[in-house]
Every structure is written in C-alpha cells, then in structure tokens.
Amino acid sequence: MYGDIAKYLDLPLATQLAKDPVCGMHVDEGTHALKTTVRGTTYYFCSDSCIQTFLKPELEYRRLKYLTALSFGLGVPAFIFSFFPILPILPINLWLFLIVTPVQFIAGFRFYKGTYHALRARSANMDSLIAIGTSAAWGYSTLATFIPSVFGSVVYFDTSALIIALITLGKLLEYGVRGRATDAVRKLLELQPPDAVIIRAGKELSIPIEQVQVGDIAIVKPGEKIPVDGIVVEGRSSVDEKMITGESIPVEKGINDKVIGATINKTGLLQVRASKVGADTTLSQIVRLVEEAQIAKAPIEKLVDTVSSYFVPIVIVVALSSFIGWYFILGSEFTLAFTSFIAVLIIACPCALGLATPAAIVVGTGKGAENGILIKGGEYLEKAHKIQSVVLDKTGTITRGEPSVTDVIAIGNLSEDEVLRIAASVEKGSEHPLGEAMVRRATEKGLSISKVEEFEAISGHGVKSLLKVGRVLIGNQKLMEANGINASSLRDTIERLQDDGKTVMIEALNGNISGIIAAADVIKDSSKDAVDEMKRAGLEVIMLTGDNTRTAEAVARSVGIDSVIANVIPSEKASVVKRLQREGKIVAMVGDGINDAPALAQAEIGIAIGSGTDVAVETAGIVLMKDDLRDVPTAIKLSKSTMSKVKQNLFWAFAYNVGLIPIAALGFLDPILAAGAMALSSVTVLSNSLLLKRFKTMRKD
Amino acid sequence: MKSLSISVSNLDCALCVPIIKKSLSKVRGVQEVRTAVMLNRVIVDYDPGEADVTEIRMAVEKAGFKALYVSERG
Q: How many domains is chain B partitioned into structurally?
C-alpha cells in the first residue's frame, strides 16, 4: 500500500519494513524510533503500548516478586499477631483486618480476575479455587471482626494471607524453573545470527538475516556463523556443526559442499551461495519441529486434560461435603469444618497434574535436539519406549550408503598406488558413485591426480580416456572384451571379490590389464557399537536388505546382528514390517527416509537417520541429524527416561493433588500447609523434569 | 489457511486451556486451537478471509489472558 502511494507520489520507497511483533502491523524501520533489542534481534513497534506489552514478561516477573514480598511482609506478622495479640489501641481482630486486607485484594487480585474470566467462559480454574478458599477465610473473618455477636471472635485472616503468599511464591519459583525447562528451544532460536554479510553489485554489504535471498553469496569469516543454508562456492574451512547435528568433531568443507545455517566457520574464509532462507532453513525447521513436538499432545496428556476439566466442580463438591459433614452431621467445631473446607479447595489445584507430562516432554525433546535427535512429539516418545524390535535397513543405515574403494590389486608392473592414481585421474570430475569413490580414496592417500586429455563414458560398461601415460580403460569385463582385451585369467579373483558383495572394475593401460579396483558399500564405524548397545538394552535387532542372503549375512555377522531378512525389494519393506507386527512385535524401523518411507510409516515408530539438512521427513517420528547409528539406542533410551519422568511426575502430582484431598477433607491438613504443598507441587514436578538434563548420550568419543 | 503462534504469559496451567480454547473457537474463521502450556503458547489455525489477527488477539485478551507476542507460522 505505502509502496504504491510512494511510487505515485514519487516519494522515496521505504526499503525497510519491519513487522511489529505484538500487533503485526508493518512499521517503517527508518522513521520509527520505537524499537528494542532482545538477544541480538531488534524489534520495531507501532506504538508505546505494543512495546510495553512486548517487554512484559520481565515486568511480570518483577511484579510477582513485589507481590510475594508484600504478601509475606504482611502475612507473617498477621500469623504472629494471631498467636500473640500484643498490638495496642485497636482490638486485635481489627488490626489483623487492616494488615491482611491489602494482601487479599492486591496480591490476591490476580485470582479474582482469573475467576471472573473463567466464570464468563462458564468454567472454573485454579484461580477460582484459591479465590473461593481465601475469600471464605477473609470474608468470614471480616464478619467476625465487625459483628462478633453473631459470628464469634475467631478469625482466619492469617490463613487467607499466607495462602496467597505461598501460592504467589510458588508461581515465582515456577517462573524460574520453567525458564530452565524450556531453554533448549530458546537456545535454538538464539543460534540464528541476526545479520549476514553478502556480496551485492560487487560490494560487501551487511544486511538483516530476513533479507537474505536464495542465490545471494554470503561471506563468512573464520569464527563467524554461517547465516543460512547454502553451498560453498569459494574457500575451504572446517565447520563446527555441533549445535545442529550434535556431531562434536568439526567437518571439513570445500567447494560444492553443503553448509548449514547457524553452524560456525572455524578456520578459513568461505563464500556461501544461499540455498535455503527464512522458514526453510534447517534451523527454522528444527525449531518448528521441536515446538510442534510440544504442541502436539501425548495421549497420556489428553487423558490428564480430560480429568482436569472435571476436577474443579468435583473438588468444590468435596469441599462443601467436608464442611457439611463436619459441622452439620458430626456436629464438630466450626473451625475444624471451616478449615477442612478451605484446605480441600487449596490442595486440589491440579496444576502439577497438568504440567507433569508436558514438563518432562519439553526437557526430554530439548535434550534430544541438543544431540541431533529430533523427536516429533510426546506420542512418539510414548511409542519409542515400548519398542521391542528394531529393524535396520542395511544400505545407508548400517552401511555408508555409497561405495568406497576396498581393494586395489596391481597386475603387471605398476604399483597399487599408481593403479589407483590413474583410475582417479580418469574419474576426476565423474559423477558416478564408483568414480567418486576412487577419487576420494586417491585424495585420502595424497596421490596427485593428472590431467585428462580425452574422455569418453560408455554407458553400462565404463570409461575410455587418454592420459599422458597412455590410453586408459576402466570398466567391467564387457568393456575389456569389446576392446579385445582378454580378462579370463582374472576370473577367480573377480568372482571372489564379487562374492563378498563388491563391485569390480578392471583397469587397462595401453591395451594391457594393469589392475583391479573393487568397491563396496562399507559398514559405518559406529554400527557395531550401536547394535551391541541395542542388544544390551534387550532389543531384538533385525537387518533388512535387498541383497542376496550370502552378502547380507556377511554384513550382519560383522556388526553382530543375528536375524537377517534378505532379498527384499524396496516396495516390499513395508510388508515385512507389517509381518513382524503381526507376530506381535512393537517395531521401530530405521532407514534413510528416502526409499523406505512406507516402511517407516508402517512401523510403530519410524526413525530417519542421517537426513542431514532435510529435517522434514514426514513419515518419521524421530529424525536423527547425524549419520550415526548409535543415536538409535540413544533415542530409545532418552524416550524411556522421559517416559519414566512423566510417570514419576504424575505420581507426585497425584500424591499432592489427589492423595491429599481426603486428608484435607478429614481435617488433618491445615490450610496454610495445604497452600505450601500446592506451591511446591508444580515446582517439584518441574524440578524433577529438569533432572532429565543430566541424561547422558552413549557416545564414547 | 494461516496459522498464528501467540505467546500468552499467563497460560500456564492445564485448567486455563479450556477457557482460552472456548474463547478462540467463538471467533468466526478460527479452525483449530492448540496449546502448549509449558511454552505458554497457543497456536491458532484460521481462515484469513474470515478472521484477522486483531480479532484473534482480542479473543485471547477477552478470556483474561495476555497475548504478548504474535507471530505468523508459515
């Protein structure tokens, strides 16, 4: 709108339009002075009231502190003076009335307000219970103060004030603990660098991160964060990706390598072409996923929510019955009946019950995210801890999923290194996985690659090439035959290699066979440890593969897997999982999420491994950022720990919120103690959940 | 359909959930309301043709909650 008008009137176009985070209005950054910087991000506001609202969490904390101080400052003296009525001039009850009334209506205002809103929604909440309980105590005492002839001279002012004081204190404590419970999410958000240095029109320009576009070239100096996901176009460096993938060892990056936004460039200067920005970056997706995990309700939580919604009316009935029972039926003293009534109301606030599950889940999923284990919600945590069988896809899960050179055999008078060097020279620039494997191996060995003068790829056979050393052929037996080279003397060697599941390539130099290079999909270093760990945890480990039985069993043996399901074509993986489920097993399927999506979806829980930057694997309930199978047992163990925290929390919450109700109703619980217990219950549940932060992953490095 | 994430400072107890849900579901165009008590957050899926951010904000405030921070989810 402004843009159109500006164009029409030939005004300077507002290039920087920021959004007011409170009301959502677009604000011109240039002309608006209303802004504030929180954790490195500057926010702009349309009005003073919006900025005030935005800054309120801090104000809220300060207010709670004042209110706690006020209510204790007056409540404790009221308590003391109730026992030692030493105040002069006025009658003691009038003194107590004067001391306590500000607590009731200033510190207690929030409870009245909450009750009002709940009533308007024809509902009741914790505020209602506290408001009813404290108002009953305060109201009765006030009547007793002014009309003692009717109501007697016993007052409960200290009770109402101390209930308010303790509950406000509980809220204050909760505030701090809550912050620590959710800090994993906040830390993720803080990883995002606020701006980026990019090249535009040949100049280096520092711009806010929101304005980086796909295709922009960003310059990242050593020690700085890579602003967005992208591809290295210039430079070489090692990059610390721990904050995203959980991998503690920095990763070497060179031209054409993918880098992830928010990771730290350690050693060299990098130029990165942005490939994903804004909500599409890996970091944004992780944040979203972690948030989503906490919004999606675990089944156990839904149950608790249902229970809570019937809680308040039931509690009010119990409280009233307790009063009527004591006073009218059993004919006990008024004080006993009245304090039981209040104690029931106060003890029964089901806040701790409501927090029991989400608190543990927030800490558990946060802990996972710190280690590159993304759990998509409480539902999956619940499922993961019940897992009995883990099905591992072979390719890409147990193995690297790409060929590596396993054997180099020199035939004739060249050395093995020379055989590899020639092959790598020919394949340099090849996009074939086998070619890439040879180049990678040669680079690892520090062999110098020479220039190719001619190159021809022969589909399905191999390549023909001309190097300084001569004419080179690399490929299968058919390629050799087609060029009149007899490879029959190598048959035994080739068959032996093939039996091990290796792919064999023959290299010929100037018409004579010079060597054999074999490559295979090799097992990841961590796979054996991971399988051991899972077996130790009592899980059945099954390997699933399209390979023939012999090859499959060789791989399974070397990582310690006993049961193998071989010869499974990709489209049948899901039905194999189904068959296992029909045998009564609760199955987790682990795969790379590309070919095995249906199997991941079929399993009770799908675990996608090494998805790298693609976090949004739809069919997986757990996404492992790192390509390390050890994260599977870690994820299952974390789920178990989290679920046992949930159960402990529910136990404590029930003990406080439900178990103490009959005790209060029977008159064994003083209302002030009830308030203390109530204040502690939420803090207990939250603190117990925080213990999950001590969870140790089983990495040995 | 659009989605809003609203940070609500005093949405901190399971008993608040039905109240805020009720108020928001009365707004025309609001399709789904989800809450995260630990994050003090409510997620509102709505049809931008029928409801707008201000209306949704008002519904949160009217139920007695403080809507601190509203952001759009993609």
A: 1
Contacts of A636 (CB under 8 A, 6+ apart): A384, A385, A387, A390, A534, A537, A539, A588
Q: pTM (2 decimals)?
A: 0.79
Distance CA A81, CA A5 (A): 71
**Counting Cβ atoms within 10 Å, is residue A319 exposed (0-12), middle (13-18) or buried (19+)?**
buried
Q: CB–CB of B53 and A24 under 8 A? A: yes
Q: What is the CATH number of the domain that holds B17?
A: 3.30.70.100
Pairing of strands A229-234, A35-38: unpaired
In this prediction, residue A17 has a pLDDT band, given cuts at 50, 70 and 90, of low
Per-residue tokens: A335:
């004080």
The CA-CA-CA angle for residues A365, A371, A375, to 5°, reads 35
Cβ contacts of B42 on chain A, cutoff 8 Å:
none
Tokens of A636: 């299952």
**Interchain contact, A54 vs B69, CB within 8 Å:** yes
A692 touches chain B (CB under 8 A): no
Here the tokens at position A407 are 């054997």
Got the DSSP string for A8-39? HHTPPP---EEEPTTT--EEETTT---EEEET
- Label residue A222 exposed, middle or buried (CB < 10 Å: 0-12, 13-18, 19+): middle
Interface check for A125 against chain B (CB to CB < 8 A): the answer is yes
Distance (Å) from the C-alpha of residue B33 to the closest C-alpha of chain A? 10
Model pLDDT for residues A241-289, shown as the tens digit of each residue? 888 887 778 888 888 888 998 899 988 899 999 998 887 888 888 887 8
How many CB atoms within 10 Å of residue A501? 18
What would the DSSP string read from start to end of A85-112? ----SS-HHHHHHHHHHHIIIIITHHHH
Phi-psi map region of A355: left, alpha, beta (phi>0 left; psi -120 to 50 alpha): alpha
Tens digit of pLDDT for each residue in B32-62?
Answer: 888 888 878 888 888 888 888 888 888 888 8
Residues 6 or more apart whose CB falls under 8 angstroms from that of A9 comprise none
B58–chain A Cβ distance below 8 A for any pair: no
Task: Please tell me if residue B71 touches chain A, with a CB cutoff of 8 Å.
Answer: yes
* Contact between chains at B17 and A305 (C-beta distance less than 8 A): yes
A118 Rama sector, left if φ>0, alpha if ψ -120 to 50, beta otherwise? alpha
Retrieve residue A451's tokens. 């220039």
Give A632's pLDDT tier (boundaries 50, 70, 90). very high
Q: Hey, is A405 helix, strand or coil?
A: strand
Q: What is the pLDDT of residues A358-374, one digit of tens each?
A: 888 889 988 898 888 98
Q: What number is the average pLDDT over the span A319-343?
A: 87
Enclosing domain of residue B61: 2-73
Active site includes A393?
A: yes
CB–CB contact A113 B14 (8 Å): no
Using CB atoms, which residue from A185, A296, A354 is nearest to B14? A354
pLDDT at A42: 64
Q: Give the residue from A31, A19, A29, A22 showing the smallest Cα distance to A52.
A: A22
pLDDT at A15 over 50: no
Under the banding of pLDDT at 50, 70 and 90, the label for residue A34 is low
